[in-house]
Amino acid sequence: MLTKRIIPCLDIKNGRTVKGINFVDLRDAGDPVELAAAYAEKGADELVFLDISATEEKRKTLAKLVLDVAEQLNIPFTVGGGISSVEDVDILLKNGADKVSINSSAVKNPELINQLSEKFGSQCIVVAIDAKNIDGNWKVHLVGGKVPTDIDLFEWAKEVEQRGAGEILFTSMDHDGTKKGFANQPLARLSEEVNIPIIASGGAGNIDHFIDTFQKGKADAALAASVFHFKEIEIRELKGHLKNAGIPVRL
User: Record's PANTHER family (predicted)?
Assistant: First the structure.
């Protein structure tokens, strides 16, 4: 059985790590290079770096900062934010990223997924999907959750898999930063409807939430930010509890 992954997420704005609630009310969470080094040492399986204002500000991800972070790591490293071309991905991979995460650009130009997976391999293409439950239907949102669409979460997930994405990073905007648990119902449905790994994001508040998202949400990986940044949960302790619950993890 494949081990489940624990992934800290560094949301970056103006070169600093930040964390908000429901995608707003951001507060400073520290230096990304220092945090990355600490997570690699503390047993994280992977690290995600999201330049959360790159798309909104219509600029590229901070390649130099990516290089500085990558030099601290011995674990897989995914970078997202403002990526809209093969050239963008080429620069980030050369600066030390192992995978890239695309979101708004994939919705605006779905063919980009095909191009990237053909050029670099599906194993390094993650499609991030931010969605909100509106009248019982999960709808995709763009530009850091600021732009709603009529696109259905599950239909879009199936399309990105068909186009060559290697993983889906699903963030429930309703759960983001609330610390009330992950969105396990749509996660479980995603897991049934697509065959690529699903990373759960949004809502981690305690260790039981991680156990639930692996058992009830059928997630392949769980991503969190503030509970790790502010040392509310230590990764090694979390993994010990997961193992005791019968969930396979890398210790």
Answer: IMIDAZOLE GLYCEROL PHOSPHATE SYNTHASE HISHF (PTHR21235:SF2), IMIDAZOLE GLYCEROL PHOSPHATE SYNTHASE SUBUNIT HISF/H IGP SYNTHASE SUBUNIT HISF/H (PTHR21235)
CA–CA gap between residue 125 and residue 166 (Å, rounded): 5
Cα separation of 98 and 105, whole Å? Answer: 19
Q: How many structural domains does the chain have?
A: 1
Domain with 112, as residue range(s), is 5-244
Are 212 and 239 in contact by the 8 Å Cβ rule? The answer is no
- pLDDT tens digit sequence for 6-57: 999 888 877 777 755 554 556 666 788 888 899 999 999 999 988 866 555 5
SS3 content of the chain, % helix, strand, coil (to 5): 35, 30, 35
CA 140 centroid distance within chain: 15
Would you place residue 58 in the very low, low, confident or very high pLDDT band (cuts 50, 70, 90)? Answer: very low
Check residues 125 and 63 and name the one with the higher pLDDT. Answer: 125
Its pTM surpasses 0.85: yes
Q: What does the pLDDT look like over 131-186, one tens digit per residue?
A: 999 999 999 999 877 899 999 999 999 999 999 999 999 999 999 888 999 999 99
User: At 23, phi and psi to the nearest 5?
Assistant: 75, 5
In this structure, is residue 249 part of a structural domain? Answer: no
What is the distance between the alpha carbons of residues 57 and 59, in angstroms, rounded to a whole number? 6
Strands 167-172 and 16-21: unpaired
Report the alpha-carbon distance of residue 46 to residue 178 in Å, rounded. 23
Give the N- to C-terminal CA distance of the chain in Å, as an integer. Answer: 15
Q: Report the candidate in 225, 249, 204 with the shortest Cα–Cα distance to residue 7.
A: 225
In this structure, what CATH number is given to the domain that contains residue 147?
3.20.20.70
CA atoms within 13 A on the CB side of 25: 7
Residue 221: inside a domain: yes
